[in-house]
Amino acid sequence: MEPISVTLGILLPILAGAKGVIGMIEKQTNWERQKEGTMSDLRVSMEALKTDAITYEVLLNAMTGPDADARPMMLLCKSQEGLDALYNLQVSLKAAKLLIEQNQVEHAEILELSDKQPHKRKPIRELIKAFFRSNILPSDETIESLKNTCKDLEVTRSVCQRSFKRVWNLYIVYQQKPSRRQTMESIGGGADINRALDDVLCAFQRRPFFISPEGENRVQFPRLTILNQNHEYAKRHEELMRSAGRDWVQDNIDRDGFLNSSGRVTSQVQALGQLQTSLFELLWSSTIEQMKRHGDPDILALESSDFQRELIELEKALQESILRAKKQRFAIAFCGMVKAGKSLFLNALIGESILPSDELPSTAWPCRLRHVPGQKIPELTFDDGPFISGLRALQKAQYSAKVKSYQPPSDDSYDFMLEPESRLGEEDSALKELHAQWADLHAVTRKNLDMFENSQFVLPNKATGHAEVKALLGILNDIIRLCFRFKLSFQMNDVEWPLLTVEFNSLRNLQIDGIYEFIDLPGIGERFETFSFESMVRLVAKDSNAIVPVISFKELARSDWKALPAIVANGFGGRASVVVCTHLDQIHGENKNEQLIAVSKVFWPANVQKAAYSSIIPCSSLMGLSARALLDISQTSKPQFLQFWDSNRKKVAHACAEKILGTGQPKENYDRMSEQLWRDKLDWEMKESGLPAAIKKLSREMVDQAKQRAFLMESEGIRRQLRKILSAQERKLLEARRSKREFDDAKREYEQARTKFVALIDSWNSTKFQLEQKYEHGLALGIKKLTEKAEGYISEAIKKTLSEWSLGTIKQEESDTIGKGPNSAAVKQKKGTTVLIVRSIAHAEEFLRLSQWELQTLLNREKQNFVTAVRKIAEEARAERFRQLKNEIARLDPRIQPVLREEIIEDLSNQSADIRRVVFNQIKNKIKTIKTRHTASSAFRAIEETLAKPLLSQQETNNEGLEDGEQQALQTIDSLGFMLRAPISVVATIPFVFGLPIWPWIICSKSIHLPVDVVESRYKEEIVTPWIRTLAAESRKTLAGVIAASSQVAKEAVENALDREDLRYQRENDQKQRHKHGMVQHMIALNSSLWAADSALQLIQEKLIESLKSSAL
Fold first, then answer.
1. What is the reported pLDDT for 235?
2. pLDDT at 786
């Protein structure tokens, strides 16, 4: 084990150094474009090196962990091959450590690849300081040094990666046990082909998925050449390797069964997942490296760049999958409305009240909760950098100090008589707004703000103990809440969520493999102008295996929770499989089924009855938490009455005790109970709380199903990428073996087929108008319905305002007399018209302001529903547009270019997953042709954020600083309208900004008369009609934009496929018989591994699907 310890000792400073450099770069903002570009390159290089270092650390620790197999580790550390590989890895890592710490290169291989001589440069940290110290552009020498550093980092990373993969490949190969299938069955066809096939099969059995014409496991060049001699031999070669891949899977299952690496029995899902991970490790550590060196022959530059991009994406996907498997971390995120009971439910699972809930301010930032068996005392750790930055911003602003010395204007309508000339200045207006924000804060948050603004306050970087953890969590939540509330900068991306570790009481006696985490998300009702809940869900989705919406039975009458399915789908990329419904103790038993059906209709409309009883977990978190606390103190004997009883109801145990003992004579009832009866009642209340069923669902059924889906999704994703590369390699081998005559015949057939594909596109384009008409008709019906509802909201808003008006009780009187008090008012019927009579203009203004606010609230709620409906119809139009084209292609003669047709249909399926994918692909096509610092993915995210801000602030965006690529992306998204630019949760918060106030009153003697019909008419004319007109225009723009974008992306998918095929024929014609020496043999060897891997993954997929179906029964 000593070599591994030495290697880890070199690796950890690399990781720490990379994180330090990245932290230095993050602290610098708002620099010139040249600076930003240079620092961006350095950061990208450091981030890549950090990611690799994390991977190496996880995998090296997995070699020596308690569940690791000792046999391959012993072989690695004792064999000469293993020791040489470990030595080379240590030398490479020392070179990386030297580069990070001193910015020097001494490694011979790195110097050779960098094409440089040994040179002296300032350390990286000093270069960064010098770079940012300059008031003008940095010196050319500094910029050149940084550029050279970036290049050296990339080369060093490549050398380290190659060295590590060699070590890991040996370790995985040493794990493999000899295959039972030692020889190939003779199929006939000649001795040469049989010997060649046997050599390839033997090489595969010695080193699975790593067949090469070089090295100790090589297959000789002549034997490989035979395998591509003609079409028949190539077909037999493919069939053999696909069979070998399936045999490899079956061998491992038959030999190991359902045992993990340490020999412990595990589930079928876990065993299949481990086998899939072994395959990924072999591909990542050997096959990928082989493709890097020999997988891309001398072809046109465009296709070469596509191949390299696909290879990088495949390598990244394999690395991420391996890391997830080695960490064995399973995470479930919980989301819901504010005060839905998420934190209380998690407290119930933990077994004690740690997370903020009930009377405390709600969760404002995600928190990871990790179950650590045996850890009785909770501990909280977190990345303090972003929080310290937020704290400094609050200390600099001194909001609390400003508010305390500010006297807000009086609400008394007649105070203007004392200072008739007073006017609110700009500063006073800002203070008034600040005071309103401050007054809206929870009392605990206001107290914390005072504490934060004290320059002596120091933020702890961790907390240990129940009270300490609870207090620090409250502080962190309030820092975030205050930063968002006062619009201070806080970076959401690349931030480690705080981690709370403790033993979960509910999981104490369960055997759980790996790391088990819950993630507590902020409530959706936490509305901040700079914060989008959907964006946070997307961030958390990267770190989670599943997401569980939490809904309160108390809140089902409201409609806001019904947006949860769309938020989960948009943020997490799929439908929720489980929903938790809290506050079960607060509904009547006869209403329970009705409530479950109501929830099921929203989340699973196609399977309401079954989902209501299989996918919804009803529970009472408070009762479960209370019963658990009582059971814990009642394990050995009945506790003292006052140990759990609390007349103030602050003790956790009190709620369940009160339900059992009542409130009349609780002590007498308790004293009369036997110890067994007491425990029986507690067990019953625990069962009735629904908590045990929830634990079973979340810790067993949901974990297994989520793991199955996760393994299946990874398998499908990796296989899809493998097949794209394999298809390209197969095409190159086909080109290498077919004759000139075969080439001419194939090209002639393709040209005829191309004409048909072009005609098909023209025909399909002509159906666009009919599709637009179809969906525009549906949209027109929706706008008509919207108009009816919006106009009805006018009278509803006025009636509600009259019934709840705080200026006084509205009495139905027939006389013209109104009360003498300044706060009284009356409603009267006058000449068939309802008239509101108040005493002063101030009262009239107050009524109009309140009624307009109520109308705005109703309209905003309806706007959210309408936007959701528009997105749905746009999504259907998108799907229909792609479906029409795929159907047209499917109707072609199946003999016409079957491989090309399959490629086109797969491209259409990949690019049409949803509207975001369509827009992304449209941007991707534009970014390719523009020089920009952005990738398509980063441009898409950047533009999404850019366009969300004006929606939130009602201001126009300044686009002058955007690059060409960003401008192109902006135009693409902007063409779709705001209904697709902003998340649903954000759309709901966009206020409708009225123009001039609407004050339709009539002054009569000593009173003010407001005819209600006039008010309604003006509201309709000035508010509702423009509101409807705007939404109608935006909805039409959205629908038209989606259909246009879908048409464009679909058309480009076909045209790009045809262009690629044109290039292939052109390349084959230009380079016929001019392949580099050995290149064909390397491709044949590589395809042997790829065919076997594709077939092995297919079998694993089949078994995972079979397991998933059986678990669903």
1. 92
2. 92
Q: What are phi and psi of 1112, to 5 degrees?
A: -85, -15
What contacts 762, CB < 8 A, 6 or more positions away? none
Write the CA distances from 859 to 799, 991, 999, 1050, integer angstroms.
15, 9, 20, 37
Euclidean distance between CA atoms 524 and 667, whole angstroms:
42
Q: Any idea of the CA torsion for 517, 522, 524, 525, to the nearest 10 degrees?
A: 150
Q: How far apart are CA 916 and CA 983, in angstroms?
A: 11
Token code pair at residue 927: 């970014």
Hey, is 149 helix, strand or coil?
helix
Q: How confident is the model at residue 811 (pLDDT cuts 50, 70, 90)?
A: very low
Q: Under a CB-based contact definition with an 8 Å cutoff, are residues 209 and 141 in contact?
A: no
Distance from C-alpha of 859 to C-alpha of 1028, rounded to nearest angstrom: 10
Dist. CA 921–CA 903, nearest whole Å: 17
Contact in structure between 15 and 57 (CB atoms under 8 Å): yes
Q: How far apart (Å, rounded) are the C-alpha atoms in residues 821 and 808?
A: 9
Backbone φ and ψ for 527, nearest 5 degrees, come out as: -105, 120
Which tokens go with 519? 């993630």
Contacts of 140 (CB under 8 A, 6+ apart): none
Q: Which residues, in sequence order, are bridge partners of residue 335? A: 549
Residues 79 and 51: beta-carbon distance below 8 Å: no
Token representation of residue 34? 């040249």
- Is a pLDDT exceeding 60 seen at residue 470? yes
| pTM of the complete model | 0.68
Residue 222 predicted with pLDDT over 80: yes
**Amino acid letter, residue 268:** Q
Residue 826 CA to residue 807 CA, distance in Å, equals: 11
Distance (Å, rounded) from C-alpha 649 to C-alpha 658?
9
Tokens 């095929």 found at: 1061
Integer angstrom CA distances of residue 846 from 412, 1015, 1043: 11, 14, 46
And the tokens for 477? 């939540």
Q: Distance between CA atoms of 198 and 205, rounded to whole angstroms? A: 11
Burial of 42 (0-12, 13-18, 19+ CB in 10 A): buried
Listed in sequence order, the residues at least 6 apart from 19 whose beta carbon sits closer than 8 Å to its beta carbon are: 50
Q: Which parts of 346-424 are beta strand (E)?
A: 367-371, 379-381
DSSP for 507-519? GTTS---SEEEEE
pLDDT in tens, 812-834: 333 333 333 344 566 777 666 77
What's the rounded Cα separation, in Å, for the pair 569 and 534?
Answer: 10
pLDDT interval class at 257 (50, 70, 90): low
Residue with token string 């940290």: 125
User: Is residue 387 within 8 Å of residue 367, measured between CB atoms?
Assistant: no
Smallest Cα–Cα separation from 282: which of 589, 496, 72? 72
Look at the block and give the residue holding tokens 């050296």: 152
Residue 745 CB coordination number (10 Å): 12
HEC string of 1003-1060 equals EECCEEEEEHHHHHHHHHHHHHHHHHHHHHHHHHHHHHHHHHHHHHHHHHHHHHHHHH
Tokens encoding 806: 């705080």
CB 805 within 8 A of CB 837: no
How distant, in Å, are the alpha carbons of 26, 30, 128 from that of 150?
17, 22, 12
Backbone angles phi, psi at 370, to 5 degrees: -110, 130
CA–CA distance from 737 to each of 296, 732, 742, 1073 (Å)?
17, 9, 10, 9
Q: For residue 336, which of 576, 480, 525 has the smallest C-alpha distance?
A: 525
Please say whether the beta carbons of 604 and 634 come within 8 A.
no
Question: Is the CB of residue 1008 less than 8 Å from the CB of residue 839?
Answer: yes
Partner residues linked to 724 by β-bridges? none
Cβ pair 295, 729 in contact under 8 A? yes
**β-pair partners for 218:** 212
Token pair 């891309």 is at which residue? 296
